[in-house]
Amino acid sequence: MTPRIYLSPPDVGTAERALVADAFDSNWVAPLGPHVDAFERELAERCGTTACAALSSGTAAVHLALLLAGVGRGDEVWCSTFTFSASVNPVCYLSGTPVLVDSDVTTWNMDPDLLEQELEAAARRGRLPKAVVAVDLYGQCADLQRIQAACDRHGVTLIEDAAEALGATAYGRPAGSFGRFGILSFNGNKIITSGGGGALLSNDTDAIARARFFATQARDPAPHYQHSEIGYNYRLSNVLAAIGRGQLSTLEQRVAKRRANFDRYVAGLGDLPGIAFMPEATYGTSTRWLTTLTIDPDAFGATREDVRLALEAQDIESRPLWKPMHLQPVFAGCRVVGGQVSEHLFDWGLCLPSGSSLTAAEQDRVVEVVRGVCRV
């Protein structure tokens, strides 16, 4: 039997083992500890920000960013519709109102033209959003220079959700360094993992200190347990931070491997009719966290779902692209700006196995199955 090929499995090496052993040997297991402090410094340096708070998840980071941006009941927060629900759910934690913005065809990320037009219209109505959450999809940054400029013109807080894009660049800057806050995720399928975790990045050191306060149950400085505000249990443990540090030390190699995966897929599938890979924006470099493509069923002779099922029959994991948030039942009542681009991407799009431990032989298996489904 051939082993199952997963979409994006963890890839753990010797550096992580040594750092975890150090955490155990020092008895700094949880909560917090020297590896958390070091991980925060190393992430901030890598992402070009002044400060960082290591947290239990990327979702927690989005939540705290919105909280620090002052989002409250009835406030609008404009989010990319083409994303995972964790980008939008925290708006609802704070009783805010999500407004969902479509993608553009050249980057698959938030359309800056739509955003600019809607911000101008909102300014005329006197109803600007409290914040904009722009998501960097599949290892590629949104057009953050234009998005940042549009938000700045109207005094709207920008939050860059770079959960899928650590290691990418835009306009010569690292992912996570745009906006007032940047978001990272270290979930098990990300380009680096801590076995679960996330981070909040910012050049506002006071805001990061405030984030750490909220993330540690908002405990007041007193010899006893005293709380004047509602807090959360959102801090990362020292053991998980040790794993993250080991992973971060090999980030460049992981990016290179995933980009090589993408190039091999293009070489193996790019000649098939109806196949189109996610474009790389001219303003930056994608990590190609996941290799993603669209399949035109008329030209290819089969649908994206036909391909997915054929791969699954051979014990190969693949996945449709994100189902847009405005098509999700839980967000059905939310206002959407555009929507056709993300709907098309969902209908035709597929993610292929892309892990940094993917072998050439495994990739050949994937290519063979996809080619075998083509009926033209």
Observed structural traits:
about 375 residues; 2 domains; 15 strands; alpha/beta; Aspartate Aminotransferase, domain 1; single chain; 8-stranded mixed sheet; 4-stranded antiparallel sheet; Aspartate Aminotransferase, domain 2
* Total of DSSP H or I helical runs spanning 4+ residues: 13
CATH first level of the largest domain = Alpha Beta
Indicate the proportion of strand residues. Answer: 15-25%
Separation, N- and C-terminal Cα atoms: 31 Å
Biggest sheet features: 8 strands, mixed
Q: List low-confidence stretches.
A: none
Total beta strands: 15
Question: What is the CATH architecture annotation of the largest domain?
Answer: 3-Layer(aba) Sandwich
Under CATH, the homologous superfamily of the largest domain reads Type I PLP-dependent aspartate aminotransferase-like (Major domain)
Protein architecture, described:
- With 376 residues, this protein is an alpha/beta fold.
- The chain has 2 domains: 235 residues, Type I PLP-dependent aspartate aminotransferase-like (Major domain) (Aspartate Aminotransferase, domain 2, 3-Layer(aba) Sandwich); 123 residues, Aspartate Aminotransferase, domain 1, CATH 3.90.1150.
- It is built from 13 helices and 15 strands.
- Strands 1-9-8-5-4-2-3-14 form an 8-stranded mixed beta sheet, sandwiched between helices. A 4-stranded antiparallel beta sheet has the order 10-12-15-13.
- The longest helix is centred in the C-terminal third of the chain and has 19 residues.
- The model has no long low-confidence stretch (mean pLDDT 97).
